[in-house]
Amino acid sequence: MHTKTNNITGILFDHNRIARIGLPEAVFCEGKSKQALRVLLQESSLKDGQPTLFTRLDEDVFASMPKDLIKKYNYHPLSRTAFTACLPGPEKGQVAIVSAGTADGSVTWEAARTLQYLGIKTRVYEDNGVAGLWRLTENLDNIQKAEVIIVVAGMDAALASVMGGLTGKPLFAVPTSVGYGMAQQGQAALTSMLVSCAPGVAVLNIDNGYGAACAAARVINLINKT
Amino acid sequence: MHTKTNNITGILFDHNRIARIGLPEAVFCEGKSKQALRVLLQESSLKDGQPTLFTRLDEDVFASMPKDLIKKYNYHPLSRTAFTACLPGPEKGQVAIVSAGTADGSVTWEAARTLQYLGIKTRVYEDNGVAGLWRLTENLDNIQKAEVIIVVAGMDAALASVMGGLTGKPLFAVPTSVGYGMAQQGQAALTSMLVSCAPGVAVLNIDNGYGAACAAARVINLINKT
Amino acid sequence: MHTKTNNITGILFDHNRIARIGLPEAVFCEGKSKQALRVLLQESSLKDGQPTLFTRLDEDVFASMPKDLIKKYNYHPLSRTAFTACLPGPEKGQVAIVSAGTADGSVTWEAARTLQYLGIKTRVYEDNGVAGLWRLTENLDNIQKAEVIIVVAGMDAALASVMGGLTGKPLFAVPTSVGYGMAQQGQAALTSMLVSCAPGVAVLNIDNGYGAACAAARVINLINKT
Amino acid sequence: MHTKTNNITGILFDHNRIARIGLPEAVFCEGKSKQALRVLLQESSLKDGQPTLFTRLDEDVFASMPKDLIKKYNYHPLSRTAFTACLPGPEKGQVAIVSAGTADGSVTWEAARTLQYLGIKTRVYEDNGVAGLWRLTENLDNIQKAEVIIVVAGMDAALASVMGGLTGKPLFAVPTSVGYGMAQQGQAALTSMLVSCAPGVAVLNIDNGYGAACAAARVINLINKT
Amino acid sequence: MHTKTNNITGILFDHNRIARIGLPEAVFCEGKSKQALRVLLQESSLKDGQPTLFTRLDEDVFASMPKDLIKKYNYHPLSRTAFTACLPGPEKGQVAIVSAGTADGSVTWEAARTLQYLGIKTRVYEDNGVAGLWRLTENLDNIQKAEVIIVVAGMDAALASVMGGLTGKPLFAVPTSVGYGMAQQGQAALTSMLVSCAPGVAVLNIDNGYGAACAAARVINLINKT
Amino acid sequence: MHTKTNNITGILFDHNRIARIGLPEAVFCEGKSKQALRVLLQESSLKDGQPTLFTRLDEDVFASMPKDLIKKYNYHPLSRTAFTACLPGPEKGQVAIVSAGTADGSVTWEAARTLQYLGIKTRVYEDNGVAGLWRLTENLDNIQKAEVIIVVAGMDAALASVMGGLTGKPLFAVPTSVGYGMAQQGQAALTSMLVSCAPGVAVLNIDNGYGAACAAARVINLINKT
Amino acid sequence: MHTKTNNITGILFDHNRIARIGLPEAVFCEGKSKQALRVLLQESSLKDGQPTLFTRLDEDVFASMPKDLIKKYNYHPLSRTAFTACLPGPEKGQVAIVSAGTADGSVTWEAARTLQYLGIKTRVYEDNGVAGLWRLTENLDNIQKAEVIIVVAGMDAALASVMGGLTGKPLFAVPTSVGYGMAQQGQAALTSMLVSCAPGVAVLNIDNGYGAACAAARVINLINKT
Amino acid sequence: MHTKTNNITGILFDHNRIARIGLPEAVFCEGKSKQALRVLLQESSLKDGQPTLFTRLDEDVFASMPKDLIKKYNYHPLSRTAFTACLPGPEKGQVAIVSAGTADGSVTWEAARTLQYLGIKTRVYEDNGVAGLWRLTENLDNIQKAEVIIVVAGMDAALASVMGGLTGKPLFAVPTSVGYGMAQQGQAALTSMLVSCAPGVAVLNIDNGYGAACAAARVINLINKT
């Protein structure tokens, strides 16, 4: 039985993805063995040209890596992301990430860290749940200054609809798995966002902060090429 | 084969329900034959003491009834409700029904008409969807004057959460089957209301305007006995 | 990358919620780190004016807090709730909480403890499942003395319908995740309650004892303002 | 292309089923063409030895059959059942069918008519929904005289649990597709019955009155062989 | 805050259930604290008149009980059941439990042990999955000697339909949560059994071996009173 | 606004599909307008080289086409398929289609007609439901002579598992939407087939007789190239 | 009973929405009465300043309107859209709409017509399903010239992932309800798009061509303000 | 209480399955006790004639077995499979397994190892996800040389449709539980494969690498008998 395996991790990187679509491949760490992750972290720390983004990298797993490897990485526990450096090039754009609650933090910051790694300026506004509308109202003028807005919310995800009715900027909504019972691991938030009464709210998978950052980056990249 | 059938309609009315719980039994017309409905409408028009509420009575079906029967009834097409008279006794209470859109009209008005029949003062505020928040803001002071608030909304049902964060009054939320795709015949609105970020929002079945009116009536009845 | 973070816990409290809707914000502890909880428990124990309710605070987590902090709190393991003191003001109202079985205990007592914290008199009636109807019958007269009734039940949740047919009081039903197989973590109980054959039964999210207490408090607060 | 087709209807009857398991094959008419049904009704009216039960035979379809065929059949519109004669042999057993409401009528009577056809004595008790418990209480002594009890209920199906706690007789529960919204075409009733808090309640498919009758017949046949 | 609590376990036993319906209440141990279980096991071991059945009692939990308590109990690890003695009275009936595979063992034996406790003769036939039909064929004559048949199967649950077409005896089918992927924790087996092409197959909740035994006991008790 | 539309039907045929994968593109008629279908039927009747298969073409729709067009087509009402001629080339292979009941006829014959059109010999065995196992047993020797077996079944779909345990031939299973209640438009049959206890049963979409024929054709084509 | 109704249609237009977010409110016609639609079409045809977009306006309904009203409208049957004129202002942007098949036509053209109405240049590429990859490959260079890409696909929706891996442009994916069986009215396509292996694919509700156009317009508007 | 148990493991092997259908029974280890597995591994290591395949045998469990038993087995951790030897006979056939990503590795290699054990030549092509189409294009010529193709993919499973449009070989698709959120433990991939736009793609249960190998073996066995 033969197989085409390129290295110990078994991964065949799509290295020309960044040239093709402006977004480099990232390493989704959940479900990968510590051995594979160590090899990948090692490889990525050597390459000068293209640093790699690691997502869903648990604090315990990262802490179990060799000390010299840990030292080379910029690791952020809440978002479970790591990279040695951001992508080269001048910082660009402006993205506002607006979340409903601090419980949405890991998704909020996965998006924020991905944007940082992609070289895009980002500002995070947490705890704007609509049960206390005044919080969103207070932040609104600043949020509106961004070019792209990402809304992160779990449970009823009503924030996405309210935000969508207040801004004309491109708006990406990420449901989170926050909540219990009929929140159904984020399905309530997802369906709520998909059937939003505000026009043109585009939705990502549950807890997909990385994907929202990529969607925003597609817009920011477009503007900066225009 | 024997059976205990009391009349041609086969229904064994729970006539002492109003004495027991303050809410009379109503006739849910959907799925009943025209013949059975005619008998029931006939019977109800004779009884002086206790008029009956008919719900989900389609306009076509009602129009096919004998002319003299039609004359005796107060029929409201949008809500599909009919009764010969409201329950006896002085008008009481104050309920505000706040809906997200006119598409929620049949549910909104089923609730309104049921409350009218139960002798409870009601005011309806339509088209307050959160995609245009200013509409709710304009109505808020008037809505707050009510003793009980009913929110009727389909799709993302974000109105329930926003309303729940703005009022301390008892608040009953009715999801509607308005919408398409992932609105899933009202399930998106239902789950959104059940996992609302506002505290103490109590929820009824999809399209159950009648039930919301009964829930509100339980509160109004309590106050008027206190 | 900048962000507006007000303290180490990242939470932007909606402190004026109690003034706005009569219900103070509570801290939902599930999913929060021990570090964040310690800060929140510390802060709350200092404030004289407004004690905070902590819900879903596991016994193990609470036991791991500093001794002097533990001492200041009234903690109830079954309901997983903690507070330093109840809200100030005279005790008011009367709520009856009727549960189907002892397995529903954690939800039953979350509701009871929340009401206690809100300053509302509460009486709990456990183990009234309809498979042994005599138990409910025996308690019925006492239950009827309350102003608001909360029914807590899992599995088939038949208790909500039976109770709803016996009382005219405002009735809030909380499904619990008790059961296995097709109980589906409380979805069977939830749907059963939503389609109850008794009129005006209003439903909360699965296991949401806190929400039922808030819904009841909205009614009690209304009466006490009237 | 060859195929083994035995007659114009394409059906290969399992005629020895009655010898094998005591229950003859029935013809489920839904989805069959009028042409096929005419042939089957014709064939069945000729056979002296073994009359056939036709279920889900709509009134319109039956009325469109030749007059002389219609004359030979005992047709019951509500249950949508037809047969030329009951199975030969002495009447046996005693089954009580207890339904929650008249809306459950078509399923209730499908069960009753199937039992009649199988030569089993049956008594039907309609409109015993638990929102008016006194109705069931009044009928209870008579119901308990039966050897087997069938409960037919839609929506919350709470009747199955209440009945199951009151009787030790074999009890078969049939959920019906009555209701709207979260009743979900009978799934709420089905799950409610499956997770009943009463022990030993056995459940049939939604609207399967025929199946409940067969399950009851298996018990009655066992007793009459004993 | 007052409550009616009868003992440390908080359980209000329905002791007259056996007189009312011939089936004593059992203790479902899953989710109960070790402390509560110890009290219940202690109480039950003292009572002479009515031994109690404990179900879903994990081996580890049972092993952690006091030695002298363990000694008094007949414990069966696979079925996770315990009792000090069977119900008094002569052994009666004959039930055959037919399972599809050994993976269904815990459910199969929960049913078998419950029947043993109820004083009903039982014979278990394991590993009769229809992928190797000869196994069922070999056992068929013996299975047919029973008065009631219980089928236990997971995954496709095809055994229930095959068995239902081969026997006229009362047949109760229990789906098990065996399988992965689309087996969906027993939902595939459950739906397969509910829509069985064999007539009169009555179904219990997923993994509910106890319920199947109770359903069978209802039939056996009926015969023995006849 | 410009668009690349190649003809009035808007379809861009993948004409080289047959060269690429040995299976020509077919026209799925459901949802297409009569006007578009007339153009497509017209075009296909002109082409000599490659006749087209039309599936899901309702009898009423076909009957409304111009007489001269109807004449050119071989139409089969039960399967709702039409073609002017089979694909050129010698007949090959041998496929057995085994169905559970005549209610599965439209799917069974869609598969049979597709195979006929593809030039593959086919034999259909209907009404082999496992509730009467002897029917399958009688046909087994003949079925086993085929090179590929297609099983078509709705409801519990137990036939797929039984068949899968009796033959080592490639076996494709097609669930049908036959049944009611928990049959859930074929989802019960689908899940039952996917979790079959027999090894190597491969499954197609609900009612996808066309797909099963294509899967079988892939095997037959492989053999005839070998 | 009083209510705040502004006109016969009951709609309270959010007229300042276009000023607020750059997207005018549209009229969703599904479920509205012919009477209400006539009034709305009448009103909209009078207003010079702001023409209105009507979506989901069935051909039969539109044809039943007064002749003089019909004349004033630009109606497109496949997309079921109507407007008297496009929004004023210079044409801008470039959007490519890429669909998998002609069956997706009504959604594809709802998006195209909405963009036309919004004054945005659009090019439609139909029938690019990945089962014949060469079709997409041929169109790719032209598609890449657009600033924003909308993918419309039903069934497996594989086109969204393939497209997402080939372009770096902002990409909005609309699932359609095309397909049968497990396509589940577009849920298969929706979930497939949400879990796409390509980064940054943002998703709209099933069949929501209007929403995709609005999402694209948010980006185009951003560019034209920059 | 008697039962027919043949050995300590309780399993009644279907040893003549290989004679009957050419595929030997395998031992699915998940959920079996270590004690039962030790007996089964012991027994299998003694039998010369027919080695047994063990699937879903976790590394930890295998490592806990006696040293001398471990030595006799060919164990593969990623696929969690073990056997002492492959089935006797000459190697035959050629199967290509094409996976979307390395995260699908355990399912990919379960299929590969099962085929190896069955004596069928296999070649594995990993990491061909369609987000980087060039990877599949590069491998296509080699993949096409196989007689049967297995596609293994999670998330959107778009690879199955793309592959199905490029090859005419028998193609079996296995969805994997890779992904999060709406990937729903493989249900997104499963439905995507079932509604594939490519004709004749046959689907196995989620994560069922073993089943795909058996389906492929049925084809290979057929060819080698022809």
Largest sheet report of chain A: 5 strands, parallel
Biggest interface pair, counts? A-G, 40 and 40 residues
Strand fraction of chain A: 15-25%
- In spatial order, strands of the major sheet of chain A run 7-6-8-9-10
CATH class of the largest domain in chain A: Alpha Beta
Report the C-alpha radius of gyration of chain A, rounded: 18 Å
Number-wise, the strands of chain A total 10
Provide mean pLDDT of chain A, rounded.
Answer: 92
Span between N and C termini of chain A? 51 Å
* Number of continuous helical runs of chain A: 9
Protein model, in words:
Chain A is an alpha/beta fold and 226 residues long. Chain A has two domains: 3-83, no CATH class; 94-223, Rossmann fold (3-Layer(aba) Sandwich). The first copy, chain A, has helices spanning 17-21, 34-46, 59-63, 67-72, 105-117, 134-144, 158-164, 187-194, 209-225, and strands spanning 2-3, 27-28, 54-55, 74-76, 81-83, 92-99, 120-125, 148-153, 171-175, 201-203. The first copy, chain A, has a five-stranded parallel β-sheet, with helices on both faces. In chain A, helix 7 (158-164) links the parallel strand 8 and strand 9. In chain A, helix 5 runs parallel beside helix 9 (209-225). Chain A is globular, with a radius of gyration of 18 Å. Chains in contact: A-B, A-C, A-G, A-H, B-C, B-D, B-G, C-D, C-E, D-E, D-F, E-F, E-H, F-G, F-H, G-H. The A-G interface holds A 17, 20-23, 26, 147-148, 164-172, 190, 194-195, 199-205, 210-211, 213-219, 221-223, 226 and G 17, 20-23, 26, 147-148, 164-172, 190, 194-195, 199-205, 210-211, 213-219, 221-223, 226.
